[in-house]
Amino acid sequence: MSSVRIGIAGATGYGGQELLRLAAAHPQAEPVVAMASAGGDGSRELPGLRGLWGGSIEAFSLDRLVETADAVFLGLPDTASAELAPALLARGARVFDLSGAFRLRDGAARRRWYPKTPDVEPPAVYGLAEWNRPALAAARFVACPGCYPTAALLALKPLVAAGLVPPEADVHIDAKSGVSGAGKKPSERTHFSEVHGSVAAYGVFAHRHAAEIEQELGRTVTFVPHLVPLDRGILETIYTRVRPGTTADEIGQALEAAYAGRPFVRLTADRLPEIKHVAHTNFCDIGWRVDAGRVVLVACLDNLGKGAAGQALQCFNVAFGFDERAGLIP
Ligand SMILES: NC(=O)c1ccc[n+]([C@@H]2O[C@H](COP(=O)([O-])OP(=O)(O)OC[C@H]3O[C@@H](n4cnc5c(N)ncnc54)[C@H](OP(=O)(O)O)[C@@H]3O)[C@@H](O)[C@H]2O)c1
After folding, report:
1. Residues annotated as part of the active site
2. How far is CA 133 from CA 19, 149, 154, 168, 324, in A?
3. Which of 8, 17, 37 to mutate to test the pocket of ligand 1 (most atoms within 8 A of CB)?
4. Which pTM value belongs to this model?
5. Is the shortest distance between the CB of 181 and ligand 1 below 6 Å?
6. What digits encode the pLDDT tens for the residues 138-160?
7. Are 158 and 256 in contact (CB under 8 A)?
């Protein structure tokens, strides 16, 4: 089979560059067009991709994406995806959206958190490949999960599905992210001199990823993200209660049953995971400890890998019938 032609909008962004790097080494795909924004300089170089990708960055063009690519990846601000994804779908493109614009299915939640997003029918498939494989296999439009929700959901969903977390148990997610999670455009909050040597909570009861986690978990959660002085990586410490008498082995069995044959979830049991072991990979590592009806789960991943570009390529692999690991595990 000839290579699937990939188009990337937002290829000069953090997620887009990572995707371009991965796609350039994919055995069954070829990035044929990579774009900056409309005003972007067409001659722009990506120094990190020298020797890995021989193409050149173009200014954004919807026509060119539709005409040249079999699969279009959007690494754009959510407002741009909200406008461009429906236009691409209407012209027959298969779309993998890294933004949050189309992740929320409930109309009221979507209007609150993504007010520029229109309704699309059928709605996007939520691209958590470990849980949504059958829907992904036929998908023409995929909303790739957010970085924080990916770690939280991969850790919590097996326990909730197995009935180990009682309905009345509070779920607290204490999350820490490196600064690339905020994209390449610096702000006062993400400026080096603000972040270096500090840790700060933000978005408490006001972060759109809480709505996404709650949608996919079917539970209310208390989600508190923090910005930490790292360039990339997310670590989440998750606290909840389990049914009395639940052992660490039973937690492990629920996680192992959920992720048997799933190449990108690594279970570390009581050796709690660390960001440096998942940085620059598509892995999500999950560890856990249990004591007297309380469980602490620690989940970590690379926000630009399993939290963005790697996950998008994993969805592409499932949607096009390739080995899920293609381009992601050498
Ligand atoms: N960063 C993460 O860890 C992460 C994780 C998961 C999901 N996401 C989501 O993925 C998306 C991209 O994030 P990012 O961090 O890669 O962003 P970013 O670093 O800010 O890059 C944004 C990209 O979009 C382009 N762009 C901006 N406005 C555009 C428009 N109107 N039309 C066409 N292109 C436009 C930019 O081009 P120029 O270079 O010309 O400005 C740039 O290539 C966001 O929706 C984000 O929420 C990010």
Report:
1. 147
2. 21, 17, 14, 30, 10
3. 37
4. 0.97
5. yes
6. 899 999 999 999 999 999 999 99
7. no
